[in-house]
């Protein structure tokens, strides 16, 4: 997380992860990596990212970083689950097949419950239904299959709760009415987030590199202002910046150009490197830790393990508002950025509860 470097893969692996599994199936073309970071609180839970990484080293670095983030996310969300993540290497539009997904499901099953998978970038509920044909340890399945459905629903709801808490902390009202919110990425989560914000009275400016996403916005939310690039978005006159695409959204140049007073979005691992959180604080920009506010999705799919109940999961995701306020209060008391306060709170729970359990055995 923010106070621990992750730029050296060997260092991250040697110091943190319990298990890393390389998965290959030549007939289907499957090349995947499953990383189990920490099972002190329970089995590792985290999605499967299907992405055309340039190199296997890039894929390894990503899965190590993402799985570690899931340990913190699940701990801070109050779940009795550890951190895990998987990546499938390749372009899903070219190589995703039923056979490949089922081969992947057999590798998930081979871990015998130390890792539960779900959707992520490049995978969908229909894919999880296929993976579930070979493994019992799959969440985020379709509702028709008894699953939680699209986890983007509560991911967006949780980000909205974090945004409301940020507004309460900074402006004294838990509403975005009259505020201008810039959203970078209107895919799975961004489009649901737009609905919450418009209903709350906010105005939206958005960007996305994919024409299909832009056309969807034109068809469904014609009142949303569109800009060509993320650079245009962050330089626009906005009150809140919501990164909702891939990680690394907050780098030195972005922080220097931001006009927003709040950053609160769905993307994972938004801080491009250690120290960005201090730059945000120095500029008076309130940063809602990404793994705190985007945890609604994991809350949704975690509920599926015990028999899914949407209203129960939504009530739990509503708690993101209170946790965000608690993080801001703790940050103020301890004189640290919110991301550091969030790390400390998650680490405290992993330490205090985890010492009672040790390594998870199914």
From TrEMBL:
Positions contributing to NAD(+) binding: 185-190
Active site, per annotation: 85
InterPro entries in the cross-refs: Aminoacid_DH-like_N_sf, Glu/Leu/Phe/Val/Trp_DH, Glu/Leu/Phe/Val/Trp_DH_C, Glu/Leu/Phe/Val/Trp_DH_dimer, Glu/Leu/Phe/Val_DH_AS, Glu/Phe/Leu/Val/Trp_DH_bac/arc, NAD(P)-bd_dom_sf
Coiled coil region boundaries: none
Glutamate/phenylalanine/leucine/valine/L-tryptophan dehydrogenase C-terminal domain residues: 149-358
UniProt keyword annotations, A-Z: NAD, Nucleotide-binding, Oxidoreductase
PROSITE patterns: GLFV_DEHYDROGENASE
GO biological process, one term: amino acid metabolic process
Keyword presence, Cytoplasm: no
This protein's record includes keyword ATP-binding: no
An example Gene Ontology molecular-function term: oxidoreductase activity, acting on the CH-NH2 group of donors, NAD or NADP as acceptor
Family the UniProt entry places it in: Belongs to the Glu/Leu/Phe/Val dehydrogenases family.
Annotated protein name in UniProt: Glu/Leu/Phe/Val dehydrogenase dimerisation region
